[in-house]
Specification:
Elements (H helix, E strand, L loop, with lengths): L5 H13 L11 E2 L9 H18 L12 E2 L20 H14 L4 E5 L12 H17 L3 E5 L13 H5 L3 H19 L3 E5 L2 H8 L9 H12 L8 E7 L5 H9 L4 E6 L4 H16 L4 E6 L17 H7 L6 H17 L4 E4 L13 H5 L2 H18 L1 E2 L1 H10 L1
Parallel strand pairs: 1-10, 2-9, 3-4, 4-5, 5-6, 6-7, 7-8, 8-9
Helix pairs in contact: 1-3, 1-14, 2-12, 3-4, 4-6, 6-8, 8-9, 11-14, 12-15
Length: about 400
């Protein structure tokens, strides 16, 4: 979720400055790192609770949709908008992102999801032409690989991106935001040519990140009006445009989007898997099915910090979550989550299923008390070096190997 991208920018900057070797052919199959370590005592309660929730998830009734092939994708973290900065085209960022696309293709993935952050491609925003060129170039790589491209148009995180954004957000009204977001959506369509474009998928996160009075997308009526304003007059050129929420949001929001906007699909994010989330998920799927609207899942990953069905404290809690998910003792739960999620998505005819934490397909790191005591940034930097090494060596973690088998 956008709540989880905060620590990516700092770590990925180091990863991408280091760069990757030119992509090589072949399928990555070798596991990186030692087997999962025992669960540390301070994480045992959450681990046990999540294990129980996953058992309930795996028992959820399968769908009965046939005749539709679900695109198996994941997020291209190396091209995340929160990791962009002026001069990006003069660095190794594009090379690293290209390498990751090739690795994802070699795993058997048939799609790529890219978070292209608002307002990077808005005309007049500083360095927008450079960012536009970057995203056009990486989209070309995806298309050349014959993979399905999904783009999420999400707001830039001001408390982590190196790009000054607070003053820009401070000047927005709901109407000017709608207008600028529509302009950027059109640019995405024109230069990236995605199959799918999601223009709203976590109203609570968007509202918290932009943080301006008068822009409250948690209000269903405001969210519906926003989606209608962005889509109105948009030349989609064959791109399907959708919107939705996370499963921690009441399904009535999605129901309003389905009934009151011309969206082509419902975008659903899955992170927590408490009973309330599973109930909301099945409700959203049923609502979309009844309205003959397909579901697209542009983000999913097992949320570790809380087990009460709600992401912890919005964007501010993201650094701790991004630290915790690097530890290898979570691998068995991540494998169970992804296995169950893909099975559920396929049986319900989802257009796309796209796990968020693609870097975990390449590496995890062994938990130690000393590592746990370090800051989130320090932990992520160590993790990113493991990922870089794995990318250069065509190695996968056990979770990556499992996802490769599921994709085939």
């Amino acid at each position: 979720m956008k709540k989880t991208v905060l620590m990516l920018a700092a770590g990925l900057t180091a990863l991408m400055l280091a760069g990757c070797q030119p992509p090589t052919a072949g399928s990555p199959t070798t596991t990186t790192g030692p087997p999962p370590a025992p669960v540390p005592s301070q994480y045992q309660a959450n681990y046990d609770a999540l294990q129980g929730q996953l058992a309930a998830f795996s028992a959820a009734p399968a769908g009965k949709v046939s005749g539709r092939t679900t695109v198996i994708a994941s997020g291209l973290e190396a091209a995340d908008g929160n990791a962009m900065y002026p001069g990006v085209l003069q660095t190794n960022v594009l090379n690293t992102a290209t390498t990751m696309v090739h690795r994802m293709k070699a795993m058997g993935e048939t799609g790529v999801t890219i978070q292209t952050s608002f307002p990077l491609l808005v005309s007049g925003f500083p360095d927008s032409s450079e960012y536009t060129t970057f995203y056009q170039d990486i989209a070309d790589v995806v298309h050349q690989e014959g993979m399905t491209l999904t783009v999420e148009e999400n707001p830039l995180f001001g408390n982590i991106s190196s790009i000054p954004i607070e003053s820009y957000y401070a000047g927005l009204t709901l109407q000017s935001y709608e207008s600028a977001d529509q302009q950027m959506a059109q640019t995405i369509i024109d230069v990236m040519h995605p199959t799918y474009l999601s223009i709203l998928n976590e109203p609570d996160t968007y509202t918290a990140v932009i943080h301006q009075q008068g822009i409250d997308l948690t209000s269903t009526s405001v969210g519906v009006a926003f989606v209608n304003a962005v889509i109105s007059g948009l030349n989609k050129e064959g791109t399907l445009v959708g919107a939705g929420t996370g499963t921690w949001t009441d399904p009535s929001y999605d129901q309003a989007l389905i009934a009151q906007t011309p969206i082509d699909f419902v975008d659903m994010h899955v992170y927590p898997v408490a009973q309330t989330d599973l109930t909301n998920m099945t409700g959203e799927v049923a609502e979309a099915s009844a309205a003959h609207k397909p579901i697209l899942e542009s983000e999913c990953w097992l949320y570790k910090q809380t087990t009460n069905g709600q992401p912890d404290d919005g964007p501010q809690a993201a650094p701790d979550e991004q630290k915790v998910i690097t530890f290898s003792f979570w691998e068995p739960l991540d494998e169970e989550f992804l296995t169950t999620m893909l099975s559920y998505a396929r049986s319900n005819g989802f257009l796309v299923v796209s796990p968020f934490s693609t870097m975990n397909f390449f590496a995890y790191q062994t938990w130690t008390q000393a590592l746990d005591a370090e800051t989130s940034q320090q932990v992520r930097q160590a993790f990113d070096q493991l990922v870089l090494s794995a990318l250069n060596s065509s190695l996968l973690s056990s979770v990556g190997e499992m996802y490769q088998s599921l994709a085939s």
